[in-house]
Amino acid sequence: MKTRFNWLFAASIAVVFVLGGTIASFAQEDRFFGGNGITVFVDKNFKGNTQTFQNDVPDLSSYGLDRKISSFRAGNNEEWQICDGKRYSGRCASVSGEEYDLSINGWNDRIRSFRRTSGSGGGGQTSTPPSWAQGTFYGTAPDGSQIVLTITRNGQVTANINGSMSYGTYYRGDININGAQSNVSQSGNGIRTRRNDNGETINYSRNSWGGGWNGNGQTSTPPSWAQGTFYGTAPDGSQITLTIAQNGQVTANVNGSMSYGTYYRGNLNMNGAQSNVSQSGNGISTRRKDNGETINYSRNGWGNGGWGGGNNPVSWAVGTFNAENPQTGGTIYLTISRDGKVTVNMDGNMSYGTLNGTTLTINGATATVQKNGNGIRTVRNDNGERINYRRN
C-alpha cells in the first residue's frame, strides 16, 4: 500500500512559564505500552538500517538518522507528520501507510523530525471513566521511570514517561495505549493498572512521586472551565502541557521537564511566579503578574494528542493556503483537512485547531472563514483582523 502524502505547514499562539526540557527514550514507552508506530529505513524498498518509533522525534540526529531516511512504514490507521527541519519546522507533510522510495515525493534523505498526528493505537472507542479514575496520577515503572498518567472525563488518556508522550483511550475499565491494554482499578486515593498481556502492575497516586507541589501552599477549587489538561506554546517554541486538578494542584510539563504549583482564587502559583487565569473560548489564558507574559491554552493538543473534532468544513476551504503574517511580514501556512482538522505554521511555530462549517478555532480564538476567489479570508471574531490566504 502506498502512502498518502498531504502537505502540512503549521503555527502558534502565545505563552507563560518556561521550564526547560528533556526527551526520554522511546524504548521505555514501547516496553510499557507497546504499539506499531512508524518504522524508518535508511535505504529504499524498506532495506538498510531500521528503527521503529512510537512517539514524536523532534531531532533525528539523536538516533543517527538525520537526513538519512529513504523509506518507511506507518502503523495501521496512523498518520504522521514528517518535517525537513528540526522540532517540526520547515516544510512538512502528512503521511500514512508506507512508502518504498521517498525520492518519488522529493523526500529522500530530507526528514529531520516527525510526530504522530492521529491514530493513537487506543482502539478508538471511549467511555466515561468513574470519578475515581479521572484526573492526573503519578506512578513509577519497574525500571524506575516516572510516569504521569492523565485520564479525562471524555475517556482520552495521556501518558508521559520521563518526558516522552503517548496517547490512548479509556473504555469500560481498560486503558488502551499504542495497542497495549491495561485494566484499571481503584487503589486508595489513586489507581492501579495491570497489563492484560504480561500482568505488569503499576500503582498510581494522585500525589507527586517526588518534589511535590510548591507555590504559596493555599489551594481553592478552580471553576469547571479551568479544570483539566490544556496545551500551549512558549515564546521559544517549547510545548507546554498544563493540568489543573479539581483540588487546586497544578502540573506543568514543558518539553518533558515537570514543575508543580497551585491554583488559588483565580491565580496559578508556580516556582514563585504568579499568573492570573481567565477563560478563553474552550480553553484558558494565563497572564504573568510580574512581566505581563500571556499564553493562550487550548483543550486540543498542539500536535501529538490530536485536534479534537472538526465537523463538515465547507469544501472550498479544504486544502493548503499561505498568507503574509501581518505582525512579522513572514509567511503563514494554513492546512485544512476534509475532517475539519487544521494545522498552521506561522514563521516556523506550530499550532493546531478545527474548522466547523465556517468557524475556525485555534487555541481558543475563533475566526470566520470566507471564500475569496480561489483562496480564503479569515476574520477574527474578537478583533476583526482579516487575513487573505492564497491556495498553494
Rounded to the nearest angstrom, the distance between the terminal CA atoms is 27 Å
CATH architecture of the domain at 36-118: Sandwich
- Structural class computed from helices and strand pairing: mainly beta
Number of strands: 32
Task: Work out the helicity level.
Answer: under 10%
Gist of the model:
This protein is mostly beta strands and 392 residues long. It has one helix spanning 26-33; strands at residues 6-8, 38-43, 47-53, 71-74, 79-83, 92-95, 98-99, 113-118, 135-140, 146-151, 156-161, 164-171, 174-177, 180-187, 190-195, 201-205, 228-233, 239-244, 249-254, 257-264, 267-270, 273-280, 283-288, 294-297, 319-324, 331-336, 341-346, 349-356, 359-362, 365-372, 375-380, 386-391. It is globular and about 55 Å long.
